[in-house]
Amino acid sequence: MQMTLKRRETMHRLCGKGLEIFNEKGYYNTSLDDILNELSLSKGAFYHHFKSKEDYFINIVQNLIVQKVYALLVEPLNTCENPLPAILESLENALEPGKKNEMAYGFMLNDFLTEFNKRNEEISNHLKSILSVWEVNLVSVLKRGKVDGHIARHVDCEGAATYIIASFLGMRSLMMDSTNGQLKYQYIQQLKQYFNAIAAQRVAA
Amino acid sequence: MQMTLKRRETMHRLCGKGLEIFNEKGYYNTSLDDILNELSLSKGAFYHHFKSKEDYFINIVQNLIVQKVYALLVEPLNTCENPLPAILESLENALEPGKKNEMAYGFMLNDFLTEFNKRNEEISNHLKSILSVWEVNLVSVLKRGKVDGHIARHVDCEGAATYIIASFLGMRSLMMDSTNGQLKYQYIQQLKQYFNAIAAQRVAA
DNA sequence: AAGAAACCAGACTAGTGGGTCGGTTTAGAG
DNA sequence: CTCTAAACCGACCCACTAGTCTGGTTTCTT
Question: CB–CB of A156 and B189 under 8 A?
Answer without folding.
Answer: yes
